[in-house]
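Membrane protein
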Amino acid sequence: MSFKGAVNRATGSRTVEVIARSGYPVNGVLHLLIAYIIVRIAFGFRGEADQTGALATLADQRGGESSLWIVAAGLLALAMWRLAETVIGLHPGEHSHAHLRESPLVNRLKAFGLALLYLGLSFTAAQFALGVGRQGSERAVGLSARLMRTEGGNLVLVVVGAVIAAIGAYLVYKGAMKKFLRDLTVRGGLLITVLGMCGHIGEGIVLFAAGASVIGAPFLRDPSKAAGLDAAVKTVGHTQFGRTLLLFAAVGFAAYGLYSFALTRYSRM
């Protein structure tokens, strides 16, 4: 059997699909925690408004270590499914012979990008579970400071920022045009549609701001601006209508979190 055939056979397993779906509620919980952190920042409390901040919050709770291992396992399962989609195309569970299809390269690249994201988060969750995790902004600022010492490093930051901004813009487009409904096995309904629109648009706007902040970091010679999502949230918080804008951002992340729970059952696999 070919490698593609083996991957296709694995994705055809109901058990494998159920395990992969377990990553969606995990992702939902992380988004709800980020929303909670953003609300706290809006009212003057400290916190880190990104995925590592959410993991750190989870680690501080009773039973945090066990919860973090569950998060790591769920995200790893989802990452493995995305890697399978990288090999044989999107939604392989819908086709008994998915490995024989001609799948557009852009779809497989998108799946690969999501796989890397979920793998990174899974690894970070495992680090927190082992007690060796570090806040994301701390790592990002240190890395950015080193990159800014060279012309090539500055270019890398600009490219990374542009990619993040592009992802944010795509999420806004996907939410505004309701393209996310194509990812569902049902027609959506009012509740899922509203959650999907608010979630994609809200998170997309914040990611676009995060990308713009990373792009600006080399020009401002300020590594703290390259801390990604957390830096964008705190920059917005310091504007004239910062609290209101942050509360809107929190609503967006919370909506995406709830939408992720819907994906647990209704996502096309």
